[in-house]
């Protein structure tokens, strides 16, 4: 039952986003589906919302810092060009290099979410590997038949 309704809020959110909902009425159905799936679904929904908010804030902060750095570089570079210390071509080349490197750093920041998910999934896999089964295995029972070949 949990698996049947567990993905429903996310599927409905994608549907609401794809169809478009100017009044926002469809977004009210997403928490209702989460409530219908029980407490476990609601906590998963709440965790998903919190995770999305933190990821959005993180990526927004990185993007804002990147653009503020470009503005600072342009401001200081223009001062150097006006003083005759540097040329306009050097400033343009430096800004293009900075944008290229900054874009790569922004891509790394956006992949941090996938990296965090991979860490969480791997820890869960190791938990499953290390768990002790609740039922004894028939293969370990005394007098169990052995399989052999010729």
- Would you report the number of β strands? 0
Main sheet characteristics: none
Beta fraction: under 5%
- What series of H and E elements makes up the topology? HHHHHH
Binned, the helix content reads: over 70%
The rounded Rg comes to 27 Å
Q: Spans of 5+ residues with little confidence (pLDDT < 50)? A: 1-6
Shape: elongated
User: How many DSSP H or I helices?
Assistant: 6
Category from helices, strands and their pairing: mainly alpha
Average residue-wise pLDDT = 74
End-to-end separation in angstroms reads 47 Å
Domain ABC transmembrane type-1: 44-117
Main location: membrane
Membrane topology: Multi-pass membrane protein
InterPro entries: ABC1_TM_dom, ABC1_TM_sf, Type_1_exporter
Topology, element by element:
Elements: H1 2-6, H2 8-19, H3 25-36, H4 39-83, H5 88-110, H6 112-130
Helix pairs in contact: 2-3, 3-4, 4-5
Structural account:
With 150 residues, the chain is an all-alpha fold. It has a domain at 56-132. It has six helices and no strands. It is elongated and about 90 Å long. Residues 1-6 have low confidence and may be disordered.
């Amino acid at each position: 039952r949990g698996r049947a309704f567990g993905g429903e809020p996310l599927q409905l959110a994608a549907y609401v986003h794809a169809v478009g909902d100017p009044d926002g009425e469809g977004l009210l159905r997403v928490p209702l589906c989460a409530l219908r799936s029980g407490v476990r679904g609601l906590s998963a929904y709440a965790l998903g919302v919190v995770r999305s908010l933190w990821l959005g804030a993180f990526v927004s902060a990185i993007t804002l810092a990147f653009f503020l750095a470009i503005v600072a570089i342009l401001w200081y570079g223009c001062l150097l060009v006006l003083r005759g210390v540097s040329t306009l071509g050097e400033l343009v080349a430096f800004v293009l290099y900075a944008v290229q490197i900054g874009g790569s750093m922004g891509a790394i920041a956006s992949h941090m979410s996938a990296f965090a998910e991979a860490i969480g999934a791997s820890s869960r896999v190791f938990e499953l590997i290390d768990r002790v089964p609740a039922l004894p295995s028939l293969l370990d029972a005394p007098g169990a038949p052995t399989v052999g070949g010729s």
